[in-house]
Amino acid sequence: MLSYLHGFHAGNHADVIKHVVLVHLLEHLCRKTKGWRYVDTHAGAGRYDLHDERALKKAEHADGIARLIGRDDLPPAVSRLVELIRGQQPGAGALDVYPGSPLIALALARPQDELHLHELHPREHEALMAHLAADANAHVHRQDGFRGALGLLPPPTRRGLVLVDPSYERKQDYEQVVRFLQQVHRRFATGTVAIWYPLVSRARIDALCAALRAADVPDLLRAELCVRADAEGFGMTGSGMIVFRPAFTLAAALEESLPFLANVLATGPGSAWTVETLVPE
């Protein structure tokens, strides 16, 4: 389906947890000089104007990244994300744009690294091309990301990260991410895969976690940030990340960051956080 546009949600609490994890994983890969390949299955437009009509319709960034900009008490992993967001602003001291995952990854990429970004929506693909046209490290594909990513694995350096971030507008997306992870594990068992999921129905996430436990894929970490208590049928109350082959430093960084975020980004009673080993090594 091509109806989902991330511009309505850019910079919200879900982007915060997703991008805290993304930055930490990519910076961990940068600890070694050998290049890495970043593959984004659902890349979006790349950058979002927080003053356009989409972003302002619900102003979700006001309860997300905007609550973090300007604070001096941020945990290190959150501070690093905020530093990168500040670096993407056209004017000093303002919050005018929010970079999507492609531009965050590009900000961390070195000359030896490369990005492969998949986006099917025609307008989002056009915007992504425009934002990345000048960078030789970034390759934009108008292709189904679940299919396209598999053809890019394993990378020649055997080092890489796949970000899986579908809209979950279709119930089949939950099943597809499990199948996709199994396929990646067979092709690139030493790589890292980060899967984002929305918390709209707790039963659906419980089923997703059960399917992942049964998928014969080892070493899965689950992290979740809820900004209010679970509430069936009342929109997204939180979101989470499931990471295959996480950096050994990730769990500790999230155990420090998520309690802070659950407090600062709360929009109602019952905010909570989780960091757990979903499947051991």
Break the fold down into its secondary structure elements and pairings.
Blueprint: H1 13-29, E1 37-40, E2 47-49, H2 53-58, H3 76-87, E3 97-99, H4 101-108, E4 114-118, H5 122-132, E5 138-141, H6 145-150, E6 160-164, H7 172-187, E7 192-199, H8 202-213, E8 220-226, E9 238-244, H9 250-264, E10 272-279
Parallel strand pairs: 1-4, 1-6, 4-5, 6-7
Antiparallel strand pairs: 2-3, 7-9, 8-9, 8-10
Brief overview:
This protein is an alpha/beta fold and 281 residues long. 37% of the residues lie in helices and 19% in strands.
Question: How would you describe what is shown here?
Answer:
This protein has 281 residues and is α/β, with parallel strands linked by helices. 37% of the residues lie in helices and 19% in strands. It contains nine helices and ten strands. It has helices spanning 13-29, 53-58, 76-87, 101-108, 122-132, 145-150, 172-187, 202-213, 250-264; strands spanning 37-40, 47-49, 97-99, 114-118, 138-141, 160-164, 192-199, 220-226, 238-244, 272-279. It has an eight-stranded mixed sheet with strand order 5-4-1-6-7-9-8-10, sandwiched between helices. The chain has a two-stranded antiparallel ribbon with strand order 2-3. Helix 5 links the parallel strand 4 (114-118) and strand 5 (138-141). Helix 1 (13-29) packs across helix 3, helix 1 (13-29) runs parallel beside helix 4 (101-108) and helix 1 (13-29) packs antiparallel against helix 9. The radius of gyration is 17 Å and the shape is globular. The model has no long low-confidence stretch (mean pLDDT 93).
